[in-house]
Amino acid sequence: MKFDTKVIHGGQTHDHETGAVMPAVYQTSTYAQTTPGKPVGDYEYSRASNPTRTALEKALASIENGSRGLAFSSGLAATDCLLRSFKAGDEIIAMDDLYGGTYRMFTRIYKDSGIKFHFIDMNDIDGFKALINENTKLVWVETPTNPLMKLADIQAIAKITKAHNILFAVDNTFATPYLQKPLDLGADIVMHSATKYLGGHSDVIAGALVIKDEKLGEQLHFQQFATGATLGPMDSFLVLRGIKTLSLRVQRHCENGKKVAEFLNNHPKINTVYYPGLESHPYHEIAKKQMKDFGGMVSFTFTSAKKEDAISFLEKLRVFTLAESLGGVESLANHPALMTHASIPEDKRKAIGITDDLVRLSVGIEDIEDLLEDIKQALS
To answer: Using CA atoms, how far apart are residues 10 and 58, in angstroms rounded to an integer?
Structure first.
């Protein structure tokens, strides 16, 4: 199947008893057994598996070309499940520009676990290689990153991780499988905050792991079952419904995102625009190589470099909503330093470029003229 067909039919079947086109919401915690240890069907307890969640997990595996999909109660729950694979003495190399919640988990939740974390610009290949040693067990990359839209060359990193037998995980939340296929490019694991583009309607909190290797998929499923951060049936249904329109939505996000980025790039009050579709973007060539299009996320700073100008802009917006999160059909605006990345210490934020005048936009699928007019009036 081609991708636009996969998002609708990939891994899916009609209900064999009723012919229902969409899977039922199996709002149940447990399943009848004919005798102890022999359930009527394939299900025993919904923490282990649930038919609605199974339908979603099959769809996730299909659209990312993986062997196993797992659906979690949030993106951070998915990340946590993977990190439970490691022990004291292990080392993890991560992208220096990360979602604030990921950074918080790595540096605060796991700080006393004995796992050592290194943060580096993954485009510094020599610096990356220098960090690898016999204790290195995982490389964690976001591409594009949140919120600076930095990219990493997935194929180049995968060659190195394979040579050293290191697991390679990619947070594909911003790109989505419509734009980028990390497993096809050499990664071992893909993570999604399915709250964002996969769900697509700002009405569900969910996460996902998609794994290339079947044995590793089984291990991670056991860790999920044993720790319990599974996605409920109604939320699974909502994400599965969102996936069916993923291609159409992301295509429109890309169209609008490009026009917003170009408008901002030519505005006298704007200093730097972070959007991989602009030729001025330092990683534009990597984006062209590994992405189908450039997405709907745009960040920018002001020529004044003043925090007050960023806040004034955000307060004036009328079509864009000032809120955390991203990837919904509606356009959202965010101040990373005060909102999504506030958990990162100020000195580290500034070191990687998250300044107090940085604004991040999640460009939605509204009429582009309304979006541009809203930005124009907020900048006046």
So the answer is: 7
Concerning whether 178 is annotated as a catalytic residue, the answer is no
Q: How confident is the model at residue 343 (pLDDT cuts 50, 70, 90)?
A: confident
Active-site residue, selected from the candidate residues 43, 47, 84, 259: 47
What's the mean pLDDT in 210-223? Answer: 98
196 given a catalytic annotation: yes
Closest alpha carbon to 60 in 182, 190, 247, 196: 190
CA pair distance 300, 369, nearest whole angstrom:
20
List CB contacts of 205: < 8 A, sequence separation 6 or more: 73, 74, 195, 235
- Over residues 155-180, the pLDDT tens digits come to 999 999 999 999 999 999 999 999 99
> Annotated catalytic residue: which of 80, 153, 171, 309?
171
> What global pTM score does this model have?
0.96
- The answer to whether 188 and 172 are in contact (CB under 8 A) is no
Rg of the chain over Cα atoms, rounded to whole angstroms, equals: 21
Cβ-Cβ contacts under 8 Å for 224 (sequence gap 6 or more): 70, 72, 81, 230
Tell me the torsion sign for CA atoms 335, 338, 344, 347: positive
Show Cβ contacts of residue 311 under 8 Å, excluding neighbours closer than 6 positions.
335
Q: How many CA atoms lie within 13 A of 232 on its CB side?
A: 7
Range 57-69 average pLDDT: 98
Q: Would you give the end-to-end CA distance of the chain in angstroms?
A: 48
Give the active site residue among 53, 68, 196, 360.
196
Amino acid at residue number 340: T
26, 99, 274, 275: the catalytic one is: 99
**What are the start-end ranges of the H helices in the chain?**
3-9, 51-64, 75-83, 100-104, 125-131, 154-163, 176-179, 214-227, 233-243, 246-265, 284-290, 307-316, 346-352, 368-379
* Distance set, CA 189 to CA 199, 312, 376 (Å): 20, 40, 41
* CA proximity to 102, closest of 188, 189, 170, 184: 170
Q: Is 197 among the residues known to form the active site?
A: no
Question: Is 47 in the active site?
Answer: yes
Categorize the per-residue pLDDT at 340 as very low, low, confident or very high, splitting at 50, 70 and 90. confident
